[in-house]
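ok so dumb question maybe but i'm new to this and my supervisor (M.) told me to 'just get the structure for Biotin transporter' and walked off. so i did the thing. is this what she meant?? sequence i used:
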Amino acid sequence: MKLKFSIREMCTAAIFTAITAILAQISIPLPFTPVPITMQVFAVYLSAMILGSRLGTMSQLIYLLVGAIGVPVFASFTGGFQILAGPNGGYLISYLLIAYLIGKISEKGSNHIISIVALMGTLVICYAAGTIWFHFVTNIPIKKAIFLCVFPFIPLDVIKVVVAYIVGIKVRGALLRAKLIKSN
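this is what came out, is it supposed to look like this??
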């Protein structure tokens, strides 16, 4: 994997870091779980679909680092390492892996059905990381953690993934044609 980034690539990744931070503020707390409904998942999928594996992952790494040092970019204008170490940290940290995998799916550009199924698989990874982390941080039994951290979010997250896929492939195609991003 190429580790050097051009100024254009760094700026592009930073734009998607900002988009993730902005969409994280669209947050709806649920009374029965400390995990809110946010648009972060949509931002992660969109950035990786558009930017590919390398820049999509970079945008999410920057997002996590900026949040970890205390800038209030996480949901509900929170920031700091304690958020990453808290009940929702597993979801946030999973963004690195899922951004990379989503970017690879985007770069491959295979059949739409296969791509959507693969993207749903990355959603399972996000849920697994978030739920397991939640379980260990809160000591809530794993079955209850699944009910608190997965089931309430599935319908909306599926919609977010599908919309991010549709928008992402169109925007990625336009940016590739305009030579504003490179295919990896």
